[in-house]
Specification:
Strand order of the largest sheet: 1-2
Bound molecules: iron/sulfur cluster
Number of domains: 1
Structural class: mainly alpha
Largest sheet: 2 strands, antiparallel
Radius of gyration: 18 Å
Oligomer: single chain
């Protein structure tokens, strides 16, 4: 059987595992929460046990280190782009271009977060952005002067986040 083109797309992407599309993975009864804990996952208990993204099992090469034991939610998820490629509506090269563009936008958001002092790389992007906004607003209450440059950078970040969300909505969310 030839290698699946959609499998090669995922190993160029990783956006559904790295905290760009989602903030967490919820576990179901069929999932081995203890096994995941033993592998270093921080499982948050509750009616819906979960772990946060970026996922610790995501490798640099965008493969999943626990592929055979990955949670049900991961097994069930195919993004809209993948489905369009599977149906023949979108070609593989066009999909690769979209993935490259969105990964670049995600990297731009991370770069701007870092430039504004956010180093919480273990959190999903949406949470990093919200926390940073709250922090800047709190700081601004005490220091209205001298923060103009930071607000300009924050405005740039806000635009970058909106553009990223637009691309995710248009191409990736099912
Ligand atoms: S977002 Fe889509 S293409 Fe990217 S890794 Fe996830 S399923 Fe694969
Ligand atoms: S367990 Fe694997 S498939 Fe699931 S989020 Fe983590 S890296 Fe992605």
């Amino acid at each position: 059987m030839p290698p699946s083109p959609t499998g090669s797309l995922c190993t160029q992407c990783g956006l559904c595992c790295d905290g760009t599309l989602f903030g967490r993975v919820e576990l179901l009864l069929a999932d081995d929460a203890d096994g995941l804990k033993a592998q270093g996952f921080r499982i948050v208990a509750g009616s819906k046990p979960r772990f946060a993204q970026p996922c610790p099992a995501l490798s640099q090469d965008c493969t999943c280190r626990i592929y055979a034991q990955r949670p049900q939610q991961c097994r069930a998820f195919d993004c809209a782009l993948l489905l369009r490629v599977q149906s023949g509506e979108t070609g593989v090269e066009a999909a690769e271009r979209l993935i490259r563009r969105t990964r670049k936008q995600s990297a731009r958001v991370r770069q701007l977060l870092e430039a504004l002092g956010d180093r919480s790389t273990a959190l999903p992007l949406s949470q990093r952005f919200s926390r940073l906004r709250r922090r800047l607003e709190t700081e601004a209450e005490g220091d209205r002067k001298g923060s103009e440059e930071r607000w300009e950078l924050f405005a740039e970040l806000t635009l970058a986040v909106h553009e990223l969300q637009r691309q995710l909505r248009q191409e990736f969310y099912p």
